[in-house]
Structures are given as C-alpha cells and as structure tokens.
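Milestone 3.1: sequence recovery, worked example.
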C-alpha cells in the first residue's frame, strides 16, 4: 500500500507543479484536502487529517504566506478563526481533485470498473479500521 500511495502522491505533485502549483508539497496537501469553501477551524483540520494542532498551525501559516488560505473570524464564535481557501486555494483543490479523478479513471480502465469499485470499497474498510486503531476516528 505504501508503494501505491507514494506513486499516486508523486504523480499528483508532479502534475500540480506542471499546472502552476510548484510552491506546494505533500505537507500542504494534508491540510488543503480537508478544507471546505466556507472554512474550517484549525482544530477541526487537525482532527480530520490526524495531525497535531501545532503542525497544522505551521502548515496553515505557510499556506497563508503562499496565498492559498486566509484566516477569518468564525461567525459562530468571534474568538475562533476559520481557515478559508482563497481563489488560488480553491483552484488548487479543484485541480488536485481532477488529477486524482484522472488517476482513478486510468486504474478503473486497467482493472475494469467493477473490480476497481470492489477494490476501493475494500480499501475504504481497511482505511477506516486502521484510522480507528490509530485513534484518528
């Protein structure tokens, strides 16, 4: 599984760089993947991606400096901040999703759509069980 993950990640980051996002890397992707257009609190980002709050805070600082996110007051609690993707951040998220969709379509064609669907279903079960065992859920 680690070889598959690394190969997909390598393809993703190479393609993102080719499409104008060369200033990002996997550590940024671990946060960008869990953003929503309306924003997410850093504590929720940390929970979603299974990272410590301090690590997520550092990555958010980097993403903010690069112009991918901004911090805004949370309307539900003015003391809290939401991490909100900028137009550039939304463009990166959309581009990454398209790249992953293309990778998945290529694999589905190679295996056959039904076999690939079963593979993904099994992988979701294994992932959920592993995340629970690791205390991420």
């Amino acid at each position: 599984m680690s070889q598959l993950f690394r190969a997909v990640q390598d393809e993703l980051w190479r393609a993102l760089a080719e499409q104008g996002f060369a200033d990002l890397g996997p550590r940024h992707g671990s946060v960008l993947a869990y953003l929503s257009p309306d924003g997410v609190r850093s504590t929720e980002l940390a929970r979603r991606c299974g990272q410590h709050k301090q690590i997520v805070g550092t990555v958010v600082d980097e993403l903010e400096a690069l112009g991918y996110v901004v911090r805004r007051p949370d309307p539900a609690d003015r003391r809290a901040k939401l991490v909100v993707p900028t137009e550039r951040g939304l463009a990166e998220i959309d581009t990454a999703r398209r790249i992953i969709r293309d990778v998945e379509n290529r694999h589905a064609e190679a295996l056959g759509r039904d076999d690939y669907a079963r593979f993904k279903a099994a992988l979701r079960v294994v992932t959920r069980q592993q995340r629970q065992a690791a205390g991420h859920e």
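The chain has a mean pLDDT of 94. The chain has six helices and three strands.
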